[in-house]
Automatic annotation (TrEMBL):
Domain of life where this protein originates: Bacteria
InterPro entries assigned: BUG (IPR005064), Bug_dom1 (IPR042100)
Protein name: Tripartite tricarboxylate transporter substrate binding protein BugD
Signal recorded as keyword: yes
Family assignment from sequence similarity: Belongs to the UPF0065 (bug) family.
Matching Pfam families: TctC
Signal peptide: 1-23
Lineage: Bacteria, Pseudomonadati, Pseudomonadota, Alphaproteobacteria, Hyphomicrobiales
Entry keywords, A to Z: Signal
Species name: Devosia nitrariae
């Protein structure tokens, strides 16, 4: 009897200690710099969104936020690294639609997007643009589609690896035209843009957060935006539908995640900080200049991101299967 009571007492004390340590960690959070992993190269659209949000969250939290670029395999290498990071709130992941497409595109993904992460909140949904090097022959989207049908694999198409938004857009475009182009993978569309500007690559489909400035400067050619209506940042760029490419709408949603097991109090603190960051004039204006907008506050929440991830994972499994794409 005596032993049982002492054992129970020891267990209760240990639990209490664990709770107070957990509680103390959340209470003092953030007590050290936070790292946000971007699963693509620096200088691309995901990196751009992350650095804008990180700056505003850092000011809100009163703590340094370091952006770490971990490119490769369409964003899955960076996501895998984040999935196995310590669940202490000091390593986060900012990733996009690729979290919902990877399960359909990879046979053996080293993480489960829906169970290995603690969602913090949605960030933004970014339109895509079909673009080409400045001196590419086709003038209109209609000319481009005909040019692709005629020249197929003689055209080089840049993307950021299987599961990247740029690769998804290319997959949908080639499926719509029933024509293959020669795909050239990069660690992110930041470096791909360098080659597009230099004329080493013919075309790409990339997010306005990476193409708006170049299009406005006349450095690359824009054929279409993948939104139902034209966007304010690029009023002269027609929608895909206007150019004859029906049902070609694609918006690249982005979410902020922590590893599963992160203290819910820390997740809530991060969601509140994300909402504050998205409500700042700097982020709103920077996003608008790049053709996008922050999500409303009620979308920058764990439940909203979890719901988006679940519904999009189901959708993309069907789209990838319908496109006849075999997981690699
Ligand atoms: C992509 O999905 O293509 C990525 O957003 C590219 C990037 O962020 O570098």
């Amino acid at each position: 009897m005596r032993k049982t009571i002492s054992t129970l007492l020891a267990v209760a004390l240990a639990a209490g200690a664990a709770f107070s340590a957990h509680g103390a960690a959340a209470q003092d959070y953030p007590a050290q710099p936070i790292t946000i992993i971007v699963p693509f190269s620096a200088g691309g659209p995901t990196d751009t969104v992350t650095r804008l949000v990180a700056q505003a969250m850092s000011e809100d939290l009163g703590q340094q936020i370091v952006v770490q670029n971990v490119g490769g395999a369409g964003g899955t290498l960076g996501a895998a690294q984040a999935a196995t990071a310590a669940a202490d709130g000091y390593t986060l992941l900012l990733h996009h639609i690729g979290m919902s497409t990877a399960p359909a595109l990879y046979q053996s993904l080293p993480y489960d997007p829906q169970t290995d992460f603690a969602p913090i909140g949605l960030v933004t949904e970014v339109p895509m643009t079909i673009v080409a090097r400045r001196d590419f022959e086709p003038e209109t989207l209609e000319d481009l589609l005909a040019h692709i049908r005629e020249n197929g694999e003689n055209i080089t198409y840049a993307n950021a690896g299987v599961g990247a938004a740029s690769q998804l857009c290319g997959m949908l475009l080639m499926d719509a035209l029933d024509t293959r182009m020669t795909e050239v993978p990069y660690q992110g569309t930041g470096p791909a843009m360098t080659d597009l500007l230099g004329g080493q690559i013919d075309m790409m489909c990339d997010q306005t957060t990476n193409t708006t400035t170049q299009i406005q400067a006349g450095e690359i050619k824009a054929y279409a935006v993948t939104t139902p209506e034209r966007i304010d940042a690029l009023p002269d760029v027609p929608t895909a539908a206007e150019g004859g490419l029906e049902n070609f709408e694609l918006a690249i949603w982005h979410g902020l995640y922590a590893p599963v097991g992160t203290d819910p109090a820390i997740v809530e603190r991060l969601s509140a900080s994300l909402q504050t960051a998205l409500a700042t004039e700097t982020v709103a204006q920077s996003f608008a200049d790049l053709g996008t907008a922050p999500v409303p506050a009620d979308q920058a929440t764990p439940d909203a991101l979890a719901e988006k991830l679940a519904t999009q994972t189901e959708l993309w499994a069907e789209v990838v299967a319908a496109a006849g794409v075999t997981p690699q």
